[in-house]
């Protein structure tokens, strides 16, 4: 049981009233809910601990990371607790839902340039902060970019994140790297997020990620996979760019800088944030007006999309 925000959220399920489902993932269901004592709407991610026997480490990491981070573009959990065989993570409710949901529902061909620039700029600010703290997010994607009613953007889901300052044991067990946490060694690992960031840019521009219809690769970290994927993603990008509404040279340059095979040659999140492309970004109110106005409530959209899938 952990308390993670200034306002003490209750850690008893009886203090919450679960409303409709608003999302689901591999091992969790997310509900809109009411925190009864505060009369405040929240989102609760309920993880079935029996289903995630093999990844208790990942869950602990997600909850711990969510409780320690403090940045306006990162999702911060109110509290978490176990109830029977499930873990409840109580978080602020983002009525826009994820960018993936919004695209699937209302923008199947992807977003317009200023929307993409605004979303990506906010995500990049979160990455600058995370990387500065030695964290790698490792799951940057449209499904993990949440938007609230004001157009505020939050990067969510730390289920597979890793901290470069952890002991070697955990890193060894995750089969990613072994070594002392010093920047000269660790910074190429942080740049894994830059790769995913480039793919996310394509996802937001196309409405879906390159090869999103293919089953996930088991050997995610294998250099062969990365190489094949890089070439494919770039071909996909170059051949399809004519179809995009995006004609900006700066978008192409920005994505190309992220999708470089050698992580050391990718820009840092801080450097990338200075890229010209992000000058096309607008305010959060613009986002709210452009992509949230007129959308059905999140639960309704979720239900409709579930029927389609
Ligand atoms: N705080 C929130 N407010 C509104 N919607 C949310 C919130 N948290 C999650 N969601 C919705 O629920 C979906 C699934 O949540 P989440 O990604 O945390 O589950 P997951 O099991 O980790 O998913 P995956 O394994 O696919 O990454 C999100 O894509 C989003 O649409």
From TrEMBL:
Transmembrane segments: none annotated. InterPro entries: Kinase-like_dom_sf (IPR011009), Prot_kinase_dom (IPR000719), Protein_kinase_ATP_BS (IPR017441), STRAD_A/B-like (IPR047173). Residues 16-278 form the Protein kinase domain. One of its GO terms (molecular function) is ATP binding. It comes from Spirodela intermedia (Intermediate duckweed). Keywords: ATP-binding, Nucleotide-binding. Belongs to the protein kinase superfamily. STE Ser/Thr protein kinase family. STE20 subfamily. PANTHER family: PROTEIN KINASE SUPERFAMILY PROTEIN, SERINE/THREONINE-PROTEIN KINASE FRAY2. This is Protein kinase domain-containing protein. ATP binds at residue 45. The lineage of its organism: Eukaryota, Viridiplantae, Streptophyta, Embryophyta, Tracheophyta.
């Amino acid at each position: 049981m952990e308390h993670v925000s200034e306002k003490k959220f209750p850690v008893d399920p009886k203090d919450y009233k679960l409303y409709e489902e608003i999302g689901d993932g591999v091992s969790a269901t997310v509900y809109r809910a009411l925190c009864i004592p505060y009369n405040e709407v929240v989102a609760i991610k309920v993880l079935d601990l029996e289903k995630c026997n093999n990844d208790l480490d990942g869950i602990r990491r997600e909850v711990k990371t969510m409780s320690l981070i403090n940045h306006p573009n990162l999702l911060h959990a109110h509290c978490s607790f176990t109830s029977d065989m499930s873990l409840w993570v109580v978080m602020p409710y983002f009525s826009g839902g994820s960018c993936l949901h919004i695209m699937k529902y209302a923008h199947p061909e992807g977003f317009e340039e200023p929307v993409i620039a605004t979303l990506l700029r906010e995500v990049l600010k979160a990455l600058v902060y995370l990387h500065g703290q030695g964290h790698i997010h490792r799951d940057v994607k449209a499904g993990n970019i949440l938007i609230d009613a004001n157009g505020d953007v939050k990067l969510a889901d730390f289920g597979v994140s890793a901290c470069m300052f952890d002991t070697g044991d955990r890193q060894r067990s995750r089969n990613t790297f072994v070594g002392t946490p010093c920047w000269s060694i660790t910074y190429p690992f942080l740049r894994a997020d830059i790769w995913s960031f480039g793919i996310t840019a394509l996802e937001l521009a196309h409405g879906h990620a390159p090869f999103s219809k293919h089953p996930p690769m088991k050997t995610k970290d294998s250099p062969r996979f990365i190489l094949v994927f890089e070439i494919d993603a770039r071909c996909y990008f170059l051949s399809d760019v004519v179809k995009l509404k995006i004609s900006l040279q700066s978008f192409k340059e920005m994505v190309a800088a992220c999708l470089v095979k050698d992580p050391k040659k990718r820009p840092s999140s801080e450097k990338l944030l200075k890229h010209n492309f992000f000058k096309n970004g607008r305010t959060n109110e613009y986002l709210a007006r452009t992509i949230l106005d007129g959308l059905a409530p999140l639960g309704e959209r979720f239900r409709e999309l579930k029927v389609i899938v």
